[in-house]
Amino acid sequence: MSRGSRMSTDHRNPREGDRARQAEGRRFRRGLTATIGVLAGASVLLGAASLTQGPKLADAAIDVERATTLAGSRLVLELNQPVDRVDGDVVVTPDESFELEIDGDRLVVSFDEPLPYDEAVTVTIDGVVGTAQPAAATIEYRFTTADEPVHTLVRRSPEGEPDVVRRSSVGDPTPEDVLEAPRLRSFAHAGDVVVGVAIEDDGSNSLRVAGIGDTTQTIAFPEPGTVNSIGGSTTQPLVAYTFNPAAGDAEPAPQSVLYTLDVSGAAAEPVPVLGPDGTPVTVNDWVFVPGTTSVVVQDVDGAVFLADALGLSPAQPLGTHAELRGMLPGTTDLILADPDRGTILDLETGEARENVLPSAELPDEAYPGHVMQLDDTGTHLLEVLIVSGDGVGSVATEALLARVGEAETVVLHATGADSRRLATCVSPNGRLVAVETAPIGADSDGYPNAPSLVGRLTTIVDIETGEVVLTQNGGSSDWCH
Amino acid sequence: MTPPTTTTRRRARMTAQSPRRPLGTIGLAIGLAVVALFAAIRILTPEDPGTALADAVQDFVTLSASVVIESLPFVFLGIVLSIAVQLWLPPDFLTRRLPANGFLRRAFISLLGILLPVCECGNVPLARGLLQRGLTVGESMTFLLAAPILNPVTIITTYQAFGWQDGILVWRIVGGFVIANLVGWVFSRHPDPMSLLTPAFQAACAREHADAATTPRRGARMFVEETSAMLPALFVGSAIAGFIQVAVSRDILITLGQNPVLSVFALMLLAFVVALCSNVDVFFVLAFGSTFMPGAIVAFLVFGPMIDVKMLALMRTTFTTRTLVQLTAIVALASAALGLAVNLAA
Amino acid sequence: MLHSLVSRWKGVALTLVSVVAVLWLAATEQLGLYINPDYAAFTVVMTIIGGTLALAALALAPVQDDHEHHAVGADDEHEHEHSHHVPAARARRVGPARRRIRTASAIVIVAGAAVALLVLPPATLTARTAIDRDVEVTAAELAADAPSLAGADPSTFDISDWALIANQFDDPAEFGGIKIELAGFVSPVPGDPDDSFYITRFKITHCAIDARPVGVPVHLPGWREQFSVDDWVVGTGELAADPTDQDGLALLPGTVGATDEPGQPYVY
User: Which residues fall in a compositionally biased region of kind Basic and acidic residues (chain C) (predicted)?
Assistant: First the structure.
């Protein structure tokens, strides 16, 4: 007998003690049995209950930045069990075209086009049946896409103030000035980094880089010259520009060489983009391929090639074409134009297909202008100028912007009678368009090689609805490159 | 009854002339010689045995050794704290300060781990020390089960791994507390608590009261006894953990893990076999975080610190097999119920 | 004599074995083969304390107890399950045969520990464990705690980042053109054993038992003629769409060469 129990039973006579001990033993066993019984019962009930539940969302992942810049971005809904089938419908609000793929315990929704900026998107998938339980469940996930900055260049030097690059965003129209220089010719941004082309007193150009560290860095060129075309990648920390050395040397050096600038870290050296033969070429036009470090370059002879901005792989020739018309928004589809036909070249697969644009329904007095293609069915934005004479010699013009689809032509925006349109630029996701205007009769600001008008205004318009999203002082939107 | 060991004891007395006198410098010399011998073996064995061992055997040795090396510092920490508690905590220190009400007492005791941040491997000697210091068997069980979870290191690592995600941290703490107190309550009703303990441990209890040696000698003797109790168990447990890692395909567990019901049991089984220290097991289960349901992770994190291969081996030093079966049944069912409930709600 | 010696001193013997093994591993900077180096300092400090206590115990503890049969061990007392109510009697009933078994198993444990920790050379896990633990599954699991890779600097990526990228991305455009160099051991790709292999490393969170293999598939038809499983190799090249497995990317190697196992074979 142990010491503990003896102490508790010593004072009783042995028989009573035995009985008491037996009673205590029964009490312990009852407590033990009841505890185990209750716990076992609870486990069985809870297990049965969870078997009648359908699959549940365990984790969801979408890169909201990629979703607005690239087509084919994927929302991965990870469930708590493998998916057997989806019986119900998939609803995406706002309406977007997508594909649903079942991959083990993941439901993958791929969006065919880049999504709108700063938009709450809800994906609802009905009738999801897992392999573990027979019950169907509804999976719902909501996310908000990334906001997109809207940059404009405000030239204030005619008023005696330095020029600034002004930034607001689609979701937050409060502007802030991100780059300042006495005179700015143009600019481009890649992520948070803004690279401006400054005009020095002697008329030559230099680069101002803001957004790396706290202070603005200046990149001067070894020889004087001008930067004629600058653009940023929508997905990579890369900016590219063409540089023309100032004339004066008799040497026939290549003009308009394309350079890339890696703005991912501390100050980087510009790297020239080399042609297929490994030497710098004179560039006529160029464009970044979204989602990659590649650049499509057209040289002065019309030869088009695909080069790597970091110079890691040799350039690949893509044939000779009359015109580069940019990329379909968010894709690797390159739009090429020749006098006899249009072509869409998928740079990923190398497949080319014919590009036919639907014709716009325009009144007689309309003059079509610049075309900006939005998707591979040929939907495009068209600048239209309506010229109406009153019969006595005075002519009124109205600048319209139309969306031309296979089914219909819709006027999205009309420039007011007191202003004139200077440029239209489609946003990287193909959902918005920046219309740059200036008052009629505005003075030229007289900038060397890049004059513009004083008092420019940029209006951001929704391509789907024609609604004005925001207006901001300044122009030269870098959406155009 | 005449115990057969009387003769053994006499024989032992005859062989060693003065068994209770320490070896002193001779012992130290022997120890240093053994260390030198081990070091020589280690240094002189060739670094590269070629391909003497099959991959499976090689991995078994590596995995087992890694569990030993991982656990060893926590075992030493536990032994040191245990010896300190036994040597310097006055016998009635705990019993005097604890509330008299059984439920409150156990609730207090389950929070002792916050003051004694020891991993579960080190808790068995500590619990043994507390038992010898006047805690009842039920109370020592409450401490043993609660301390690995309700201790700062475990809480911090769990927070680092999961944050507030799915309430895993909260459920781990609440579950550990409730289960430990439930077990303490059940066993506090036992009519003969001492019978829950192994005879060897009861004997150690009995001897303890008669021990009058000096503090350093008592400490040294405790170290000898605790290591003799803990380390063979640790090595055997680690070997089992290593063996299962090599022998059981992980695919099986992972396939099970996506089922809301079976995942709970799969991870509890995994917790049982991998036998990781409670303050590090979250990092292990984090690897399964994306494929396993939160309830399964909670069950892993509650069940594992309380019961696993290594812990059972260690607890066998103190509790009888029958007691351990009852204890394991309660803890396992409670952890499973908790895990299933979390899965249901998640 | 042997019985009492073994039952009394097995713990100290195991302590000294472990202490020597751990301190030697720490001195030769091989502790990282078993545990995450973050824990090395704590491990070494506690090991030194344990070793000191073991030596002190040898000097101070009584040679044997008058209660030496009470020395407890994990392998004790299996015979007592049924005699629940007479504990005082149970303790004494240790027969000579049982004592022999107990002593023998203690000797086996000590000898086994000495062989495993002192005689066998320290080793990394082999490709066998990598295969069992499924390289691709690990990559999927890593995604859970992977930071957003967009905008990160690829030059800081280690093999687990690249493994994640190779597994997660189907479109080579994002990371194509970045030259990467990876070292690891060779483990076969289950679906494509002849044309591809993984350059594999084990990623360790705490100790080797939680090691998770991470690997980047390398497309190199006929690789078995050059390398065998478990060889250490360095591969350089670029990520491209996996020619055989449409899902995910693979390293299209410029060069793959044999190398020696590095001193720090794991990633943490």
Answer: 68-84
* Among the partner residues A46, A58, A105, nearest to B344 by beta-carbon distance: A46
Cβ contacts (< 8 Å) between B330 and chain A: which residues? 32, 35-36, 39
Q: Give the separation between CA B293 and CA B167, rounded to whole angstroms.
A: 12
Chain B within 8 Å of C104 (Cβ-Cβ)?
no
The model's confidence at residue C79, banded by pLDDT at 50, 70 and 90, is very low
Q: B326 contacts in A (CB within 8 Å)?
A: 32, 36
A9 touches B: beta carbon within 8 Å: no
Q: How many CB pairs under 8 A join A and C?
A: 44
Specify the CATH number for the domain of residue A69.
2.60.40.1220
Best of C80, C90, C167, C171 to disrupt the A interface (most A CBs within 10 Å) is C171
Question: Is residue A333 a part of any domain in this protein?
Answer: yes
- Listed by start position, the domains of chain B span 58-345
B113 vs B117: CA distance, rounded Å:
6
CB contact under 8 A, B19 and C64: yes
Q: Domain map of chain C by residue range?
A: 2-119, 127-258
Provide the CATH number for the domain around residue A252. 2.130.10.120
Kindly determine whether residue B192 and residue A5, on different chains, have CB atoms separated by under 8 Å: yes
Q: Which chains touch C (3 or more CB pairs under 8 A)?
A: A, B
Interchain proximity B330–A35, CB inside 8 Å? yes
Task: Identify the band that residue A125 occupies on the pLDDT scale cut at 50, 70 and 90.
Answer: very high
Per the structure, the complete domain to which residue A202 belongs is given by: 187-357
Who among C87, C174, C238 is closest to A2 (CB)? Answer: C87
Residue where a domain terminates, one of A357, A376, A395:
A357
Residue C148's pLDDT band, with cuts at 50, 70 and 90, is very low
Q: Which of B34, B250, B321 sits opposite C132 (nearest CB)?
A: B250
User: Please, which residues 157-186 of chain B have a Cβ atom closer than 8 Å to chain A?
Assistant: 182, 185-186
Q: Does residue A206 sit in the same domain as residue A353?
A: yes
Residue A163 is assigned to a structural domain of this protein: no
Interface confidence: ipTM more than 0.85 = no
The top-scoring range by mean pLDDT among A38-47, A284-293, B129-138, C212-221 is A38-47
A32 and A120 both lie in a single domain: no
Cross-chain residue pair B69–C126, CB shorter than 8 Å: no
CA distance linking residue C205 with residue B161, whole number of Å? 11
The domain C127-258 having CATH identifier 2.40.50: the answer here is yes
- For chain C, the DSSP string reads -HHHHHHHHHHHHHHHHHHHHHHHHHHTT-GGGTB-GGGHHHHHHHHHHHHHHHHHHHHHSBSS-TTGGG---TT--GGGSS-TT-HHHHTT---HHHHHHHHHHHHHHHHHHHIIIIISPP-PPPHHHHHHT-HHHHHHHHHHHPPP-TTS-GGG--HHHHHHHHHH---TTTTTT--EEEEEEEEE-TT-TTTEEEEEEEE-SSBGGG-EEEEEEEE-TTGGGT--TT-EEEEEEEEEE-SS-SSSEEEEEEEEEE-PPPS---B-
A218 and A128 inside one domain: no
Measure the CA–CA gap between C192 and C245, rounded to whole angstroms.
8
For residue B113, pLDDT over 80 is answered with no
A349 and A464 share one domain: no
My answer on whether A121 and A201 are in the same domain is no
Inform me whether the pLDDT recorded for A66 exceeds 80: yes
A343 and A194 within one domain: yes
Domains of chain A: total: 4
Is residue A65, in this structure, part of any structural domain at all? yes
Same domain, A20 and A78: no
A292 CA: distance to closest CA in chain C (Å): 5
Same domain, A314 and A328: yes
Residues in chain B closer than 8 A to A56 (CB atoms): 346
Query: Higher-confidence residue: B290 or B27?
Result: B27
